[in-house]
Amino acid sequence: MKTIIEPFRIKAVEPLRMTTRDQREQILREARFNPFLIRGRDVLIDLLTDSGASAMSSEQWAGIMRGDESYAGSDSFYRLRDVLKDLTGFDNVLPTHQGRASERILFDLIGGKGKVVPNNAHFDTTRANIEHSGAEAVNLPIAEAANPRSRHPFKGNMDVAALEALIVRTGRERIPVVMMTVTNNTAGGQPVSMENLRAVRAVCDRHRLPLFIDACRFAENAWLIRTREPGYEGRTVKEIAREMFALADGATISAKKDGLVNIGGLLMIREPELFRRACNLLILTEGFVTYGGLAGRDLEAMAQGYTEVVDHDYLAYRCRSLEYLAERLLRAGIQIIEPAGGHAIYIDAAHFAPHIPRALFPGQALVCGLYRAAGIRACEIGSLMAGPGRTPDMELVRLAIPRRVYTQSHFDYVAEACEEVFARRDELRGLRIVEAPEVLRHFTATLEEV
Ligand code: F0G
What is the side-by-side order of every strand in the sheet holding 116-119? Predict the structure, then answer.
């Protein structure tokens, strides 16, 4: 059979609330043109993020009941540790409440003034935690990452020559770690190839530097390696994941993505002394080492999530859903970051609404247009999110796809909505900021239409 179906059936349903265009107009105005200020119940299809928005399986819900709530030595922790050991090869696993907690602990230990941390592209919270420690965060994406039309299969890759040059220029003693974000969220959810990971590892070896992976979406990355990188067609996603993690000295992970859970994170560190120090810091601020700020049931759901996420039928359906949406948008003439990545479609808003200057946030205008037309909530990743004084490479709107939540007809609806807004794109209006905080302003800024 050619048709790829959702490889699950639905056991519990959560009704969606329909709204009229007039109601949405009212809601959008009350939210001051900022979708973060819209209530969830007023959203029909929520594509704000893929984080913590997964649907859990019946086995995960069963695990919620089985969760061992022992303060120390919970069975659920040992199950999680065994699952992760099998998947990553790491012996030293710490649970945390979410990805940024892992980042905070890591950079409290190895960051600090004068240090420099390279990455293919830092996610906001990684950058913020590095900068909070006093260190500098540097992005080293390949040139193709800035071109939405380039069909390079691994636009998440790091520029290896630029890494080498940075190390030579900065001096290895000032670089506590090299990071690789897989998949590369900031660059469009684009994957990193095994070849690139190996090349970065070789540079790290030459300069005796540790390599850490921000592995939130490692399963999607492994699937895209399997489908796009020569030599990996016959390998299982689990084998590919193991090969990726074998190249690293540690990993920070938000389990809210490929962990298929609504909350949770992980910190994995190979080096025993650094791991010991991380344990102490975890106890100080998150909780004991066998729960890290989570309930036993959360650990149980996570252990089950990580066994389910490497399933080939699931990943084939997941990545095909994104490709399907990407194909429809491209066919309608809507420029997106090509090819589709692992967790989201990124629309080039500057191309979508060329009549809106960058200073008037074309991405936010499109976000408002999608909500008005169809009750779809998306997220601006452009000048508004970047903040004052920073000009990002692109003005993007991210349609992030929660895992196992929406079906084919929802994707058809989203595609139709995008096509309709595109056909009437002249009606989109730029926005001006009324009020906004200094940092991370996109979460709470209020705006008005010009
Ligand atoms: N690293 C990457 C690559 C991420 O995408 C995220 C979160 C984090 C770290 C932080 O994890 O939220 O659990 O603390 N990304 C979400 C998103 C918020 O919408 O892309 P967290």
Answer: 93-96, 265-269, 250-254, 211-214, 178-181, 116-119, 136-139
216 within ligand 1 shell (Cβ under 6 A): yes
| pLDDT tens-digit series, residues 181-235 | 999 998 899 999 999 999 999 999 999 999 999 999 999 999 999 999 999 999 9
User: What atom of ligand 1 comes closest to residue 125's alpha carbon?
Assistant: 10
Distance 315 CA to ligand 1 centre (A): 20
Is the pTM for the entire model greater than 0.85? Answer: yes
**Non-local CB neighbours of 9 within 8 Å, separated by 6+ positions:** none
Structure tokens at 121: 């592209």
**Two structure tokens written together for 317:** 């359906």
Q: Where in the chain is the domain with CATH 3.40.640.10?
A: 58-308
Indicate the pLDDT class of residue 60, thresholds 50, 70 and 90.
very high
Residues of the chain with CATH 3.90.1150.10: 21-50+311-449
State the closest ligand 1 atom to the C-alpha of 255, by its place in the atom list counted from 1: 13
Which residue is closest in CA terms to ligand 1's atom 18?
A: 51
Closest CA to 217 of 156, 130, 142, 150: 156
The encoded tokens of residue 252 equal: 């920070």
Tell which CATH architecture fits domain 58-308: 3-Layer(aba) Sandwich (3.40)
How far apart, in whole angstroms, are the C-alpha atoms of residue 86 and residue 82? 6
Instruction: Report CA(338)–ligand 1 centroid distance (Å).
Output: 22
- Ligand 1 mean position, distance from CA 234 (Å): 31
Residue nearest to atom 15 of ligand 1 (CA): 51
Task: Classify residue 149 by burial, with Cβ atoms within 10 Å: 0-12, 13-18, 19+.
Answer: exposed
CATH match of 21-50+311-449 with 3.90.1150.10: yes
Contact 98 CB / ligand 1 (< 6 Å): yes
Model confidence over 128-169: pLDDT tens digits? 999 999 999 999 999 999 999 999 999 999 999 999 999 999
For ligand 1, say whether the CB of 139 is within 6 Å of any of its atoms: no
Which helix (H) or strand (E) segment holds residue 252: the answer is: strand 250-254
